[in-house]
Amino acid sequence: MASPSRADAWQLLTEWTPSEALRKHGLAVEATVSWYAANRFAIAGPELEIWSIAGLLHDFDYERFPETHPMRGADELRRLGYPEVAVEAVLGHGDHTGVPRTSLLAKTVYACDELSGFVIAVTYVRPNRSLDEVDPRAVVKKMKDKGFARQVPRDQLLRGAEDLGVAFEEHVANVVAGLRTIRETLGL
Q1: How many Å apart are CA 126 and CA 144, to the nearest integer?
Q2: What 8-state DSSP symbol labels residue 2?
Q3: pTM above 0.85?
Q4: Closest by Cα among 55, 52, 51 to 26
Q5: pLDDT for residue 5
Q6: Is it true that the peptide bond before 70 is cis, omega within 30 degrees of 0?
Q7: Could you read off the pLDDT of 14-40 as tens digits, one per residue?
Q8: How far apart are CA 143 and CA 151, in angstroms?
Q9: pLDDT tens digits, residue range 124-149?
Q10: Domains of the chain, each with CATH number or no CATH
Q11: How many other C-beta atoms lie within 10 A of the C-beta of residue 66?
Q12: Is CB count within 10 Å lower at the N or C end of the chain?
């Protein structure tokens, strides 16, 4: 049996995630994880699609099962035949699960998840709401403002870059580059 495709993953996301904002978040994380795979780690072909799927689906079960997210989603992904490396990345994308991030894919999804959202929040407060106005300096400055996007754990932003072995400012630039690949979809 063939693994589900990216098209299958999109269908699953839209079926389980009614919120356009959470769908866009999935697309944002997919774009940044895929950017890392292709541009930093030279991953291509079927493996790149697995990375894409893991980024896209990391929060797909959140609206249906917020109290058991992402465990319930991981069960569904296994039932549907998604590769275990993608399931493990979904399980490890948050600190609350206690699932260790042992694969490069899991570390990348973790590193890109919260930072993608934070970079988008920074973009929203720029004069033209454009990713062209966002650079590492602007993101670091907003990180110091504890009232800005206060739900985003700053330590997780830093730990994600550290786990990838990338300087934080470089990680921000990489995430911005990944988000720019879907700027029209995000409206940024």
Answers
A1: 16
A2: P
A3: yes
A4: 55
A5: 96
A6: yes
A7: 999 999 999 999 999 999 999 999 999
A8: 11
A9: 999 999 999 999 999 999 999 999 99
A10: 6-186 (1.10.3210)
A11: 9
A12: N
Helix axes 71-79, 84-91, angle to 10 degrees: 170
Taking the CA atoms of 163, 146, 170 and 84 in sequence, report the sign of the dihedral they define.
Answer: positive
CA–CA distance, 153 with 134 (Å, rounded to integer)? 20
User: Which pair of structure tokens corresponds to residue 146?
Assistant: 């504890």
Q: What is the 3-state secondary structure (H, E, C) of 145-166?
A: CCCCCCCCCHHHHHHHHHHHCC
How far apart are the C-alpha atoms of 73 and 9, rounded to whole Å? 12
**Which residues in 161-179 are b (16+ Cβ under 10 Å) and which e?**
beebebebeebbbbbbebb
Helix (H) or strand (E) holding 33: helix 20-35
- Share the mean pLDDT of the chain: 95
